[in-house]
Structure formats: structure tokens, C-alpha cells
């Protein structure tokens, strides 16, 4: 934990400000209000924020000035919520102007003179808790009079009464003497200009639709380490330290247990069909394109012969699988078998056969069973 609990825990808050808020909601609200202004130039941005605050002050002043209630609208909702909970408690008064509030085995001490409760909520927030409201109602007193004056309507109206002053436009601005101050030259940076706020490492970030919708922890702000020297603050691409020569790791001859169990079991036990891969250059099933003999320049004639044989078999297979029975190609002498409901397979690869019947060479014949 980087911060001590007294900086963010509600139990350590001071009772002077009369505020129980421990989040940064006011910063997030302000940041959302100036989204359309923060991308402008400096003077235009300040002018836009000034006009926004001027309109907001007038709106809040009129809304609260016409409010007949002693408390602000949101404070009234919180008080009514605490009143509903206060009905579940039973209060008993003592001789020293204190009350004992209980609900079952849970009990609290309420001091109306000091405006405090043993739960601590009243002293920190300035609003009577449900225990204090139970004691105030037991003594037949007004609950609104025990609310801190910072939440009264006329106090908030006085805060908005000052408002934002008005100014003339640029045509009335005085001209400064001396050399004109010009803005710095803008250099076109690569990529699309960024307008969103830079989020910290602990904040959640919503990914685009292409990467899935959801909240994920951002990697920005995290401490990175170099893959070469192991130092912090840079990566291997920007590392300036000398290259560290590492000893090559010896590959273990023993297989993992999962692979050993898979290799020891037959194909029928695993329930998976073995997939045979072929070379993308010559089409052989004994190697891949990286270890193909064509890369080394040896065995080219044999490889080409295998390619021709495979292409011939594929061409004849398309003809042999049209019917049912034994198919013999009289040109190459290859034999194929096609059963009912099964795929065709090669029975024997023979030599080219020439059959001469009355001076002519007949086409391939299909023998049906």
C-alpha cells in the first residue's frame, strides 16, 4: 500500500470541513464539463470556461433562490432516507442530555449538545445520522435545526451571488507595446492527435469494439523492464547498455507429461484423427517448406517426380469416385476402389500400360462390381 489510510479512509477525516466524500468525483465532473474547451487554444479555452461558469452560476442561483425549503434539494433526500432508517431504533434519554439508541444488540450514544454520535457519521458529514434522528424525534425537536449550516439554502445562495464578471470582446482589448509575442511553431506529430485524458495505471479503460467491449486495466503508467540488461524505465529496443551474450539454453530431451501421455496412447484411445501436413513447395508429406530439398538444390528431379505422381493420382481420383467398384486407368496402370458410402482409395500404383485393340488405344475402363 503506497498511501497511508489516514489519507483516504473516512474514519480519519477531519470534522471541520463537514464533508464525508473520499472520492475524486469533483475532478471527474469538472473534466467532463470542459471536454469541448480543452482542445482549443489557450485564450479560447479560458474564454469558453469563463462563459460556462457564468451560465452555471446564474442557473444555480435562480434554482436555489426560489427554493422555499430550508435545506438544499439533495440534502433533503438524504435526510428523508435517514428518517426512514431511524424508525427501526429505540431511544432512551439520560440526565446529561444524551440518548442511548438501540436496535437489538447494537447500541449507540448520541450527544445532541455536541452534535455527535458514536458511529462518527454526524461529526464528519454534518448531517444527523439515523441514530441522531431517532434521538431528536424522541425529544420532539426539529431535525433540520441540527443540520450543519453549510447545507442551508440561503448559505449556498450567498456563495453563488457573486457570480462571474463580464468582459468586453477582443475589439476592446488594449494593444501591448513592444515586440509582438508569437506562439511557438507547431510541428506536425505522427499519428492522430490525442484528445482524451491520460489515464493512470490503476484506472479502467474501455476497449474499442474490435478488441471486445469491456473494462480492462490500462498498461499506461506501469513500470517496464529491459529485456537485455534488466534495468527499469526502458525496453530492449531503446537500451544503450552493451549487448549481453547469453549462453544458449540446452533443450531438454524429456517431454512433458502431457505430451508423453499423448504419444504413448494410440490414435484410437485419444479419439483424435492424426493430421498429415504437406510441403507447400513440392507437396510431399515427409517434410515441410523449411526443410524441403528444393532449398538446398539436391534431389530436384526426385521431388518433381513425386509432384507429378501426386497430381496424376488426384486427377484420376476425381474420375474414379464417380461410380462404385474398381477403376483401372489403362494409361498409368493405377487401380482404385470405390465402395458404397466410402471415399476412393489407391490400391496399387502400376506402370503405364498400353492396350492395343485393333490398332486403337481405348480410354480408361471402369469395372463395376
TrEMBL record:
<dbReference type="InterPro" id="IPR006564">
    <property type="entry name" value="Znf_PMZ"/>
</dbReference>
<keyword id="KW-0862">Zinc</keyword>
<dbReference type="InterPro" id="IPR007527">
    <property type="entry name" value="Znf_SWIM"/>
</dbReference>
<keyword id="KW-0479">Metal-binding</keyword>
<dbReference type="InterPro" id="IPR001878">
    <property type="entry name" value="Znf_CCHC"/>
</dbReference>
<keyword id="KW-0863">Zinc-finger</keyword>
<dbReference type="InterPro" id="IPR036875">
    <property type="entry name" value="Znf_CCHC_sf"/>
</dbReference>
<feature type="domain" description="CCHC-type">
    <location>
        <begin position="226"/>
        <end position="241"/>
    </location>
</feature>
<dbReference type="GO" id="GO:0008270">
    <property type="term" value="F:zinc ion binding"/>
</dbReference>
<feature type="domain" description="SWIM-type">
    <location>
        <begin position="108"/>
        <end position="140"/>
    </location>
</feature>
<dbReference type="Pfam" id="PF04434">
    <property type="entry name" value="SWIM"/>
</dbReference>
<feature type="region of interest" description="Disordered">
    <location>
        <begin position="237"/>
        <end position="275"/>
    </location>
</feature>
<dbReference type="GO" id="GO:0003676">
    <property type="term" value="F:nucleic acid binding"/>
</dbReference>
<protein>
    <recommendedName>
        <fullName>SWIM-type domain-containing protein</fullName>
    </recommendedName>
</protein>
